[in-house]
Amino acid sequence: MGLQRQLKGLWRLNQRMNQWRAMRAIKEALRVAYPFILVMALIDFVGQSFLADSGFFFQIYHVGTWLPGLETWRELFQAVSTVVNGVVAVMIAFTTGHYLARTYRSDALAIGVMSALAFLTLNVNYQALGQTDRGGDQLTQFVEGNLGPQGIFLAIVVGLTVGWAGSRLMQMLRKLQLRHPKWQLSWTGRVAWPLVLVLLITTGLGYGLSWISAGGLNGLVYQGLSTLVMNPGHRGLMILGVTALNNSLWWLGLIGPVSLAGNSSVTSLQNLAYAVQHGSGWGAPNPITLHTLGDAYANFGGAGMTLALLIAIWIGSRQTSYRRVANQTFLPNLVNLNEPTLLGLPILFNPILLIPFVLAPAVNIVVAWFALTWKLVPPIVYPVPRTTPGPLIAYLGTGGDWRALVLSGICLVLSVLVYLPFVRLLNNQGGDHDAA
Amino acid sequence: MRRNWWRWLLLVVMIVVIFVPSVAWMHRRVAKYKTVYRTPLDPTILIPGSSASQNRFDDLITELRKETKVTHSVLKVKVAENGQLSYTGSIRKGDNQPFIVIAFDNNRDGYRNINKQAAWLNIAFKDLVKTYHFNHFSALGHSNGGLIWTLFLEKYFAQTSRVNIDRLMTIATPYNMESASTTKWTDMLNELVKYREKLPAKLTVYSVAGTENYSSDGTVPANSVNQGKYVFQNHVAHYTQITVTGDQTTHSDLPQNKQIVLLIRQYLLQESIPAKERAKQTVNRRSLNGDPDLP
């Protein structure tokens, strides 16, 4: 009963948040950006898992040996992927600003472009500006990494701020004009003056930040997070905390700090060394790490066990849009590329989905921690490609231990069970309750 | 109902299509890791020449320790005639480039003794691999120590198939024993040439000779050292001959000769030695005129 009441409270919170102009702007912005991101993700799915040297399918199907013109294929896919993936955040800055301006009945297109430009100025590579053309290794004009998925949070913030401030400025100018009919200002002027002001502020901000961190504002946030996340030590609680924090950040649109990159860390190498000499991972020197817990058992589909979310949607959701997104993003999720699911449902800024998004991986980490400490399964020791389907990571990483496969199955089922009540709760959206 | 059946079939097909090849891939990868994996522990195993004990290289090791930033720990192994091993010293935990000196109770010269010593080396080597789990190493042999290494590599090394040798440096090793002749081959050289096909194909060999005059270092004839080419050339990956002249080039001085220490650091331990230091060494050599006490 208590749970029921809490779920109801959560639902009310969700409804109230959906009334907020900012929340609606974010949702709308993500809805518009979703098709582009979906296409990008499907292209990345092929590019990263079938064509890249380190891709999972590339390796298991020996794509390199039978596909003619491999290099050409790679370049083509990379070109498309770079174009869309590289500017996702700019797109979102535009759509957020655009939608917010529309709610203020301001000039939506102009404000949208203004937010995109403001976001770009925050990510100008100021170190590159001073350099003269000497050839050789030229720095790029923008901090390119920040324009991709990892810039989404900043893009939303900029979009909201500029969307609000720009609309207000344009309205003020219009009012001013009404009051002083002699002082005429064209449409151009009404757009140009706010733009100049906004750009002045963001350029100042960006330039100031470039003194602190080379990567701009995003770089600063990421630096702080990465150092925290890179060294969670061996203790289970720390790993739990770091993963939960990381997943909450993904929910905010800060996509990136932790990824399945633990293969090369010192502890993993020590484990590998041990396994190579002893034939298996039993008794490896570092059984409890972010890699052996999080990457192996709490990352199916990417951060937040989104693969389990998709299954929960297939089982329990009556929302057509959810089921559609689940079908569309299944393949990218299979190889741990879950950005389209995050932005498509969306999970981002969705208060109901935040809970299982953080909880499901946490449950898995606890279960895996017990299994590893009680020596029910060996830790994963062999490196696996980033794009390995989630439930297979532990099995392949232990060198084929069936107990790890069973544990992966248990983790998947548990996560689906964690997601299900929340997915069912979302069935109410747009239904009778919404109307009330 | 029909639709459901179709979905389950799709699921099964997907699992088979992904699972089966990935398991095959995994087994290949695990096997590959086992073959190409190199342990961080990368010892340098040193064998002294005849009539020398396990302490023969102390001067050299002091010299090497002085000039390297990381101090290498030293383990000494003595093999008795019945194959019993006695250890002194230890490999410090975390030291991945230790020195291991292997010496023999019966350290006498002669074709038959050296063959026996190669067999004893095999016993000690297997025990070291079993204890310390390294799967690659570098070797240094002074004088007959180089012969023991070569015999060992040709006749016994295949027994420890999981271990690879990266580099071998022999210092004043008389491949043709005491003979200065370029045409007459002793039993030793005949045997070494006979089994040379068995030498590890990826091995890199450096043969360093010292000469006091134009023909010998006082003990070993330069021609005998040169005969090493018949053993190694075209049977290992690289074979390099180096001749060092100047002071401290008598046979027994060679392991602590400054030039040779530098060669050991550069080629055997693969340290990166700054150009400045290399230049300094040469200058010192010229100005000191053989007085080692001057700074």
UniProtKB/TrEMBL annotation, chain A:
It is a multi-pass membrane protein. Keywords: Cell membrane, Membrane, Sugar transport, Transmembrane, Transmembrane helix, Transport. The chain crosses the membrane at residues 32-51, 76-101, 108-129, 149-170, 191-212, 296-315, 352-372, 402-422. GO terms for cellular component: plasma membrane. It is found in: Cell membrane. GO terms for biological process: N,N'-diacetylchitobiose import; phosphoenolpyruvate-dependent sugar phosphotransferase system. Coiled coil: none annotated. The keyword Transmembrane applies. InterPro entries: PTS_EIIC, PTS_EIIC_3, PTS_IIC_cello, PTS_Sugar-EIIC/EIIB. Residues 6-422 form the PTS EIIC type-3 domain. PROSITE patterns: PTS_EIIC_TYPE_3. GO terms for molecular function: protein-N(PI)-phosphohistidine-sugar phosphotransferase activity. Pfam families: PTS_EIIC (PF02378). Its main location: membrane. The phosphoenolpyruvate-dependent sugar phosphotransferase system (PTS), a major carbohydrate active -transport system, catalyzes the phosphorylation of incoming sugar substrates concomitant with their translocation across the cell membrane. This is Permease IIC component.
Automatic annotation (TrEMBL), chain B:
SUPFAM superfamilies: alpha/beta-Hydrolases. Keywords: Hydrolase, Membrane, Transmembrane, Transmembrane helix. Pfam families: DUF915 (PF06028). The chain crosses the membrane at residues 6-25. It comes from the Bacteria. Residues 276-295 are annotated as: Disordered. This is Alpha beta hydrolase. One of its GO terms (molecular function) is hydrolase activity. The keyword Membrane applies. It comes from Levilactobacillus senmaizukei DSM 21775 = NBRC 103853.
